[in-house]
Structures are given as structure tokens and as C-alpha cells.
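Sample 1 of the test manifest.
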Amino acid sequence: MSLLKGKQIPIGITLVVGLMMIVNYYFGAALPAVKSTTTLIQNWTVIVAAFALIIGLINISRIHINHLLKRSKGQWFFSLWCLAIMYIMIALGLFGTTKNPGYQWLYNYVFLPVDATMYSSLAFFISSAAYRAFRARNVESILLLSSGVVIMLMNAPIGEIIWTGFPVIGDWIMSVPNVAAQRAIMICVVMGSVSLGLRTLLGMERGYLGREE
Amino acid sequence: MALISHQSGLLTLIIICGAVLYMIYRARQGLESEVRRVAGIDVIDEAIGRSTEMGRPVHITNGLATLYSSGSPQTIAGLSVLSYVAKKCAQNGIPLITTIYVPETIPIVMEMYREASVLAESPEWFDDYNIRYMSSHRFSYATGVQGVLQREKPAASFLMGSFMAEALIFAESGYLAGAMQVAGTAATSQIPFFVAVCDYTLLGDELYAAGAYLSQDAVQMASIAGQDVGKYLAMILLLVGLILSAMGSDWLVNILKL
């Protein structure tokens, strides 16, 4: 019973499956049994994770039904709208597949435009973030400001008209210092991934298990 | 057909894993490894303290990477931070709002909340209303998180995990809500946005180290020191590659392609 209460079983499964994935990556060509087993496990993972969407559905429903029941001020009508749209989409998708005209209409004429609107709002967030970040307070921010201005002029058609050197300098900034810094971060990320992976396989990193003990 | 693929990668993996395991062994023998301070992790307590003083909630989100994608290490690392933040919030008695994109993390987060409330001997702290699944569509999730930040005005917001274009929406909304923000991601395309907007940013491997760092466990900290050996190896390879490349030799490139 104590074994079931503890984390030994999930840690053991993690260790075995994790090692199997590593063996498959490097020796998969020589070990077809391992390759087929890992493919099967990966398919299971996707299926299990898809079922987690039901948990998400329950979570959203509980939160918004609660708002409706309490008639939360300034919230309950949004909750009603959220639940109505969510369940209409689910019903149309389940009973008429995603090819259902109603589902297609909601997706193409409600969801996609709203989605695109959210994406485009990013332009304003970038402007306000740039306004604060591009203040020449110290040497680093002066470097950031000047490189930002050059890159902006490289991408804007007027930049090349002002001075033909902007695209050349901008291209150099993007392909030399920028790539160098990104690769340095990527190398560190890989080292960090290996270390985290090892800690996870050894059962030292238990964040993914929920409880520590 | 070669029986072993990515031979150079396997050798590198063995060297890095060997170094990490050696450091863990040293730590178990009582020899502590020195790990540099990471300001972004040290400041987590300060951000929670700020929320406590202001009587406002704390917000955390773990980004987009599912537990079966290549970005899953970021989610796992983010969950470790969440676990720590939940315990601190439960101790201080302030609400922690977790916004979720990856539905399979909901039960994990619930367990963390339960454990935090038990450890703080404060069962009333656990309120599953604060664990909010938004959507598994990126901009619907972004809209939901933005709404939470704007309506509930958290005094601290932690953005820990894999993010894409929505990163700046979160960071800017958090700024407008007056939250102290600590972000951590290994997504190089989003790091500049976080650096520009957030108060502190964990760059790449610092996020992965967060769980071990926050645990303050000497053995786990030693594993962070072990990964530095890999960085030294990368530096040596870069230097040798640079010299050989300048001499017109592709020898190292061909070896690494094996």
C-alpha cells in the first residue's frame, strides 16, 4: 500500500519509458522491437492526452456554471456566452463532424476573425513594449535601441531610400551577433535539457507528478 | 546501414550525463558544488511577498508545450516552479491563479495545490476555481490569460514554460495590471520580448535549473554544476572548429555529422 501511495511506480515507469526512448533514438535501426514498442507508447500518450481535454471541458464548465449560479457581477453573461458557444461547437462537431455547415460557419466567420484580431493586437503590444525598452538608459539599452532602429529601417522600404547601408548593417546584425547569441542560448538549453532529463529519470525532479511525496 | 545513429550525439550525451552523474555522486559524498546565483529565481520569494503585502493574487502560467512534445522539458520545469510558488502562496494565504493551456497538466496542478494547502495546514486555501483551463488554442488561451490579468490584477505574474507569439500579450497585460513579472523560457524567439517587458527573465537553461535551484537540495544543485561540463565541452568544440575551419578543414564538422 505504501508503494502505491508513494511515487515509486510512476518514477519507475518514467525511468523505463525514458530509457526506451533513448535506446530507440540511437539504436532503433538495430532493435525493431524497441522501435515498435516506443511508437506504440507514443500513440498511447497522444490518446491519453486527448482524453485530458475532457478534464479541461469539466474545468471550464464548473467555473462558468458557478459564475452563472452566483450571477457574478460583470461576468455571468460572458460565462453564459462562453458555455453556449462551447457546447454548440461540441454538438455540431460531434453530430455533424467538422464538415458540418454550422460548424464551418462558426469556425470561419466567428472563430477565425476573432483569432486574427487577437494576433493583430500584438502589433500594439510590440509598440508599447518597444517604447519602454528602447530608452537609452545605459550602454546595453543604447545598443538595443540602435540595433532596433537599424533593423526597423532595414525592413521598412524607406530605410533603403534614406541610406543603402541600412539593409547591409541590418543583415549583418541579424546574421552575425543575433545568430551567435541565439546559438549560445540553444547550446545552454540543450545542456539544461540533458540535466533536467537525467534528474527526471532518476526521480529527483518530480514536478510532473504533482505531489512531491 | 549503421546500427547506431547519431554516434557523435550519443558520445556527447554520455559525456554530459557522466559529468552530471559524477557531480551528483560528489554531492552524495558531501562535496558541495558551487552554483552561481540566478537573480530571476531568487526574486520569486520577493514577488510573492509583494503580493502578500498588497493583498492581491499571484498568477502563473506554464505555456504551450504539451507533456509529449519536444517542449515538454519547459513545461516540467515550469511545473516545478509552480509547485514552489503554490507552497509559498499557501503559507502566506494569498490566492494563486494558474491559467492552463495544456489540459493534461490540470490534475498535476490540482495535486500541487492540494499538497501546498496540506503543508501550510490551510485546507481552505485550496480552491479549484483558481485552476483555470483556458483553451488549447493559442490565441483563445492568450485572450483568457489577458482577461485574468486585467480583471484580477495580480501583484506578481510568473510566465514559466514554452511560449510563442502570445508571450508579449501576457507580459504587456501583466505590466498594465501592475504585476511584478518573472518569465522563463527556452524559446529563443520569445526571450527578447520577455527581457524587454518583464522585471526578471530566466534565459534558456536557467528555467530548467529552476526546480533544482528552488529545492536547495545539494544533490540536485550538483546536477546543475554537472551540465556546466557540457558547456565547457561545447566551448572547446567551438574553438577547435573555428581554428580548423579557418585552416579550411571540415574534419570536425564531418565527425559531428556522424
